[in-house]
């Protein structure tokens, strides 16, 4: 294990983020503000409170999760795909750096960026709605674990992608629908029983549910299951990345 | 002395079925400059990509500094620096950050004094804060060299270092390579500029169609395969070659003032003394005699053509 290499990759990726920090922050913050204006203020006023929480506040965890998932996947997939595209990946492949260091660097940076953006969104939400966080420690823990899990997934997508279209297709076709259907804007308990059962097959529901519990103290599924789901996802993704680096799939000829 | 790189029966067959290397064996001594020559697609880049860890060999072993590149890859790779054929740099990063990043990637602690010395030696210090996309092609190549040297490797691979660069810059690059060798860095370069190999290399390996045809010291290669051309300038021009001298391989120039003669330096008798004596017997006064060694390019072409035939 070479910590300096991991730190070098992490610093390199974060430097890229800070070079364009305002663009990186502006887009997710703007879209979140629009969600608050439309769902929170315009429509939210006509929707009754969910489990006693005003609708505007209820959607805050979901919006944060939506952003974390999208940003984690986009940051990590682009982070590793761009060196593949530009050819600079060679220096990572010839360095005495193992898959753990490379993954820690890229995924750590992608997750850190996503968490920073999510916290900016949380701060933005205070302008629109009064949000009380019941379990701040667990809120941060869920935020971090989810960012890591989806950054790992994004990293795999970036390793797999052979072109920019492939890089876009998974987040667009899979991640966004899963988030919307995972209860970002509603509680699964609001669905008819059959659809509630179907919704519970969606792994993202467990993440959003756990995260929402850390805010409001109620959840669609037990919190332990949410933690289990995120831990399982991290383990499966780590296994896949280890396999990719050890076999050289799509990396080495 | 143990070679710094020991390549033993390395072969590579790509998934497409293409055989890029056939049981190549080669030992590279510490501190030497080895030039790998070969036409496009000969297997030069595949060979160095295997040593550096970019390509997985289908068979054989490679040791760098005694470390197996597959089982002891961390130790082996620490000794290696690679300058790739294609210029690949993060466009928005500054020169100095680029070089610092590579040093960190190799697990080395920051050393700004060394980075400064390195950038100065490559005439990049004034450009340290410039973004790499703002640099000329030659400067970008030097940044790649700086990156490759940032962790003080013992072996430097230069894959076609002067491909597509102008003559002035090429000479600049050669100077850099010579200075590195003077510092004790072992250098392996691939090229199809024969002039480059002829000018710089201690030893030359010729690869064609995945096979290492030969590896010789440059001087031995020139001596072994080199032909010389003898030019005899005459005081009085000849209208035609005397009949009894025809069939000796002599060629009379158009103005009749010069006789050309190709001979093999390896031959026991070159026939030069005999030829000069015969010219004197015929009363042909010789003004001057000069010889020219055939270039590496001619040697290379004859080797590759021989193998292809």
UniProtKB/TrEMBL annotation, chain A:
A GO cellular component entry from the record = ATP-binding cassette (ABC) transporter complex
Q: Name one Pfam family in it.
A: ABC2_membrane
Q: Which branch of life, at top level?
A: Bacteria
Q: Keyword set for this entry?
A: Cell membrane, Membrane, Transmembrane, Transmembrane helix, Transport
Instruction: Answer yes or no on keyword Magnesium.
Output: no
Lipid biosynthesis recorded as keyword: no
Q: Which GO terms describe its molecular function?
A: ABC-type transporter activity
Q: Which InterPro entries match?
A: ABC-2_transport_permease (IPR052522), ABC2_TM (IPR013525), ABC2_TM_bact-type (IPR047817), ABC_2_transport (IPR000412)
- How would you describe this protein's topology in the membrane? Multi-pass membrane protein
TM regions (residue ranges): 20-43, 55-82, 102-128, 140-161, 167-189, 225-245
Recorded hits in PROSITE patterns, A to Z, give: ABC_TM2 (PS51012)
The Swiss-Prot or TrEMBL record describes its family as follows: Belongs to the ABC-2 integral membrane protein family.
Q: What is its main location?
A: membrane
Residue stretches making up the ABC transmembrane type-2 domain: 19-248
Spell out the subcellular localization from the entry: Cell inner membrane; Membrane
The taxonomic lineage of its organism, from the top, reads: Bacteria, Pseudomonadati, Pseudomonadota, Alphaproteobacteria, Rhodobacterales
Q: Which NCBIfam families does the entry link to?
A: PRK15066.1 (NF011648)
> What name appears for this protein in its UniProt entry?
Transport permease protein
From TrEMBL, chain B:
Q: Which UniProt keywords apply?
A: ATP-binding, Nucleotide-binding, Transport
Bilayer-crossing residues are none
User: Which molecular-function annotations from GO does this UniProt entry contain?
Assistant: ATP binding; ATP hydrolysis activity
Which PROSITE patterns does this entry report, sorted A to Z? ABC_TRANSPORTER_1, ABC_TRANSPORTER_2
> What sequence ranges are listed for the domain ABC transporter?
5-234
In this record, what's one Pfam family? ABC_tran
Q: What is this protein called?
A: ABC-2 type transport system ATP-binding protein
Instruction: Name the species this protein comes from.
Output: Paracoccus versutus (Thiobacillus versutus)
The taxonomy runs: Bacteria, Pseudomonadati, Pseudomonadota, Alphaproteobacteria, Rhodobacterales
